[in-house]
Amino acid sequence: MPAGYGGRGHRHGGRPDAGRGHERPQIRGRRDSRRLSEELRRMDGASYGRYRALSGDWDFDDHTLTVERVQADPYAPPSRVAVRIPAEVAGLPDHAWRSPVRRRATADYLVRRAHRLLKGARLRVDVGGQEVLDRSACRIDDDGGVVVRMGVELPGHGRRIDGHAAERELCERVPELVDGLCWEALDTADATSFADTVEDAVALRAMLPELGLVAFVADGSVLPRRSGVSDLPMSGDPVPFVSPESLRVTVRLPHRGQVSGLGVPEGITLIVGGGFHGKSTLLHALERGVYDHVPGDGRELVVTRADAVKIRAEEGRRVERTDVGAFVRNLPTGADTGDFSTDNASGSTSQAANIAEALEAGAGTLLVDEDTTATNLMIRDARMQALVHGDREPLTPFVDLVRPLHRAHGVSTVLVMGGSGDYFDVADQVVMLDGYRPYDVTEKARELARPRTDARFHPPARRVVDPRSVDAQVRGRHRIKRRDMDVLTFGETDIDVRHLAQLVDPSQITGVGLALRTLAEDGILDGRRCLGEALDLLEERLDSGGVEAIGRGYAGDYALPRRHEIAAALNRLRTLRVSRVLRDRE
User: Fold this and answer.
1) Residues 6 or more apart from 284 whose CB is under 8 A from it?
2) CB 3.0-4.6 Å disulfide test: which of 245, 259, 360, 547 passes with 134?
């Protein structure tokens, strides 16, 4: 690759401007690497606000540096810059980016390399965790050019510019980064293998419906994580996953070739076992299986259908005109459970609402762990039914609904149960975890099962959202920001997202906020379409445009969320108003 001019070991002549306290609104004339270097040294010691003159494009021989936003002072959120590397400089071969899957994978690989190359610099790139997501930090254009977006803390001495340090970051570290991201500078076999791994996972997930499966866990997978606060694979000598022979499925993948593992069939699958034997670990891997994982994660070939949604109780959440009638009826208050609202849901009503809302958003598989559920919505044993007669109990337990939910509506369920055998009565298959090893105990569970009468499951009513209730603006300016993994601030409202288990990356939370803004401001929520139809339209836009489809001028980091988490956040928005509830007959 030709060496680009931009300060790789170069120092340009000149001396600081005598009028260093003067702030100019812009820099006129040719804006190239030499000029940027000169201007930064002139700015040394000037008022911090003078950095604003850097906004715009700076042309280097082999890339363009764009200063997109300048922080107001040294203590404000970092400035934002973008580096555009032309296709002829990046040198990416067609196999690295021509398909959407490989483009996403290679962009992810490049952003992880950028993170390593920038170690010790003031430049920061949003690298993410174990999942390979479509994120704003790196994009490969339609011609093979590469765009990397970063934050940078522009250096200063107090509120005075440190021009020499800024020159090192923008005129030396950035060109070094460009050199390091070009294909010839990469371990090309490693980069290719990275994309192959992602492509295999995508291909495997696409096979699941035709195989009659909702999930697949490859033999040899490492499911346990390093700790409760680390998503890295367990170190030392973890127990590799080995599927039971009776549930083993063999597939052929584009790159890995023939692979065997546990196929989780459609229907009702029960995961049982003693405490600390790996039940929740397996379910957690299935939750994350809706995403692709980096090589070495241990879960590269643990895949789940893209429409799988984790369900839990969520006491205290707001519910807006949700049809929970399948689970709740004849409330003592006389409230209409087919059009149910509350500002402070109980455990059982919140879980019922979560299920109904997931189905409304298009969920085809429900993932449930008894540890995070409302017991009275999950089971009612015979003795409790004898004491509290049906006409006095408004709840229909999930155990009576899970079978018709699948047989009549095609929705499968995977449940972790350790304390009740009632679900033996309805399970299609039962997997027992013993020391992290799975065993098929379906026949033994059936010997213990009892006849059960199913209730009828009525699909939840469809809702039409009032778009005026979804407003990201505060005094004419958009406010979308996140607080860790707990809160999304959207306009004047904080949305509690801490219980949305399949939000796996902080940047996804920002992406959810941008998606909500897109739904409301682009007319997708138009006051006539039901929510499911609006989500379909949004998903079409995201499938064709990727993460850029929701960015629209947003300068920070964000990653693409699923439709299910977008809908879940919308349902937790306390300003949300539903204008109409549509029954099947409508």
Assistant:
1) 223, 225
2) 547
Q: In sequence order, which residues have a C-beta less than 8 Å from that of residue 159 and are 6 or more positions away?
A: 47, 48, 73, 74
> Which structure tokens are listed for 102?
């490989």
Residue with token string 């085809």: 364
**Angle, alpha carbons 91-136-493 (nearest 5°):** 180
Give the CA radius of gyration of the chain.
Answer: 27
238: DSSP letter = P
Distance CA 215, CA 229 (A): 25
Amino acid at residue number 271:
I
Q: What is the mean pLDDT of the chain?
A: 92
Count CB neighbours of 232 within 10 A: 13
Evaluate whether 572 touches 496 at the Cβ level (below 8 Å).
yes
What is the 3 state secondary structure string of 428-491?
CEEEEEECCEEEECHHHHHHHCCCCCCCCCCCCCEEEECHHHCCCEECCEECEEEECCCEEEEC
**3-class DSSP state of 566:** helix
Show contacts of 448-452: CB within 8 Å, 24+ apart: 448/421, 448/424, 449/424, 449/425, 450/425, 451/425, 452/399, 452/400, 452/425, 452/426
How many other C-beta atoms lie within 10 A of the C-beta of residue 424?
A: 21
Q: Which amino acid is at 226?
A: R
Which tens digits make up the pLDDT trace of 243-293?
999 999 999 999 999 999 999 999 999 999 999 899 999 999 999 999 999
With vertex at residue 274, the alpha carbon angle to CA 452 and CA 444, rounded to the nearest 5 degrees, is 45
- Alpha carbon 292 to its chain's center: 11
* Alpha carbon 247 to chain centroid, angstroms: 30
Q: Are 85 and 62 in contact (CB under 8 A)?
A: yes
CA distance 399 to 421: 11
- Give me 330's structure tokens: 């004849």
